Every structure is written in structure tokens, then in C-alpha cells.
Amino acid sequence: MSGAATDEEEEVPCYDDDDDDYTMRNRGVSRHVVDLLGLQVGPQDRLLAAASGGGGGDRHRNRFLMPSAVIRHLRGPAFLGSCRFAYDHYGDKVYVLMPTAEDVDLLCARGKVFDVGRREHVAFYKVKRVRLRDESVDDSANLGVRRVA
Q1: In sequence order, which residues have a C-beta less than 8 Å from that of residue 3 and are 6 or more positions away?
Q2: Rounded distance, CA 62 to CA 53, Å?
Q3: Is 127 in contact with 19 (CB distance < 8 Å)?
Q4: Which residues are paired to 47 by β-bridges?
Q5: Which CATH number applies to 21-134?
Q6: pTM of model > 0.85
Q7: Contact, 16 vs 25, CB < 8 A?
Q8: Which of 16, 5, 2 has its CA nearest to residue 128?
Q9: Nearest-5° angle of CA 96, CA 116, CA 76?
């Protein structure tokens, strides 16, 4: 597909002045994320994407640790059990299915970038709509699985 992207085709984080929050309007995600979180392709109101960055350390470990640390700090340790997490390697994002749309709004309000630890940060984006990425028709079908013990 060529030409400029429309709002429906946009995949990058963007600021949406009408909603006063950070949003991803039409996020392409892998089948793994859709299946793991029990999502339907289309509009969403309880899904957010966490983008982390900064300093260093074990980047792979921090993908889940940093967003969960912020949620735990804001809502308490018991609240984490009501959230579902999934990592998508295509966009290097952690997706979090929150219990309510209000919980998403709390984390995605204007200016919600959180420092975590000494040199790292995490930002949350409301995902308004998801679509399957073309190359992820069924990621798990391509993995060979065999019993070893």
C-alpha cells in the first residue's frame, strides 16, 4: 500500500487531542497477543500498550517488570492479578488488558510517563482498535513442539 497513512491505518503512538490521552488508533498486533488476551479484532476499550526505554540493564526482563511495577505502585499488589499481560515482538510492546476502561484512562492520561528504577521509564498508550498483522496469521503454528521427557 502506498501513499500517506490515514488515521485508520496509523500504527505509531500519537497524541489525540479529542480524547486528551496517548493513543494508538489502529494497532497491528500478532495473533499471539489476540489469542493470549482473548481479544476480538476491532475496537477496544480495556487494552493498553506499554513502551519502555532508558538506561540499561536486562532489557528482556524489564519488558514485563516495568509496566507491572507502575501498575502495582498506582493500584496496589492485589490489583495486578486482575490484569493480563502479553508481549508482542513485532512492535516490542507489552500489552495489558485492564479490568475496566477507567483503569486504562488512569494510566494513559496526558503526561503519564513514569520513571522506574534509576534510569528507565515506561509510557502507556490506549489502544483504540487492533488488527492482525499480515505476517502473523498464526505465529504459534510455525513453532515445532515435541515432548522431550
Answers
A1: none
A2: 9
A3: no
A4: 97
A5: 3.30.70
A6: no
A7: yes
A8: 16
A9: 55
- Cell numbers found for residue 127: 489502544
Cβ pair 127, 44 in contact under 8 A: yes
Residues 3-57: tens digit of each pLDDT: 444 444 444 444 444 444 567 778 788 888 899 999 999 999 999 998 877 555 5
Strands 113-116 and 120-127: antiparallel
Query: How many CA atoms lie within 13 Å of 99's alpha carbon, on the beta-carbon side?
Result: 9
All three cell numbers of 66, joined, read 516495568
In the chain, where are the structural domains located? 21-134
The residue whose grid cell reads 538506561 is 55
State the Cα–Cα distance between residues 91 and 95, nearest whole angstrom: 10
Question: Residue 77 corresponds to which cell in the numbers above?
Answer: 499488589
> Which string of DSSP letters, residue by residue, matches 25-63?
SSEEE-HHHHHHHT--SEE-SSEEEEEEEES-S-HHHHH
